[in-house]
Design goal:
Blueprint (H helix, E strand, L loop, with lengths): L3 E4 L5 H14 L9 H13 L3 E8 L2 E11 L6 E10 L8 H15 L2 E5 L11 H12 L19
Length: 160
């Protein structure tokens, strides 16, 4: 299979929101309410923003992957990129779609003088850790290394 990666346009927001919903429903976030309204608004803002890169991967004209990352430098002179979401349609996992998205992200980072790129696997997929191991292994092949822990604490926010 051949994958083409490009910057998302507003015409892609519907599919990107669908991927966000799929990611949400496959993950430990599924116990939290998904907001389509927030997702549409956020994607519209990110597509327009200079400090976000919203990438989609296509196979035969159909969007099958989504990679969003933001770039900032609040504490440093150098730019730092951080992953917002990395999602591959389950039928295209393990078939070079993720590599195509990462190759484009690498190109952007090199061209934009980005010094660091933070990413994490925090969704907590209930598959015995297979997706997390695949994601971690893929990122390590691209030069990412484990530099610490990502911790989470849940609050009830009035829920019983």
């Amino acid at each position: 299979m051949s994958y083409t990666v490009r910057f998302a346009t507003k015409a892609d927001i519907q599919k990107a929101v669908e991927f966000g919903y799929q990611f949400h429903s496959e993950s430990s976030y599924r116990d939290m309410a998904f907001s389509f309204e927030n997702a549409f608004y956020s994607l519209e803002c990110m597509i327009d923003a200079e400090d976000f890169h919203v990438l989609v991967a296509e196979c035969d004209g159909t969007i099958v992957g989504l990679y969003i990352f933001g770039v900032e430098n609040p504490w440093t002179v150098e730019k730092v990129a951080m992953c917002v979401i990395f999602y591959i349609d389950p039928q295209h996992r393990g078939k070079a779609c993720a590599c195509a998205l990462l190759d484009k992200a690498e190109e952007i980072c090199n061209n934009d003088d980005i010094a660091l790129f933070y990413t994490s696997s925090t969704a907590g997929f209930d598959d015995g850790g297979a997706n997390e191991r695949a994601f971690t292994g893929l990122m390590q092949r691209y030069g990412f290394k484990n530099v610490g822990s990502y911790l989470i604490k849940e609050y009830s926010n009035g829920k019983d």
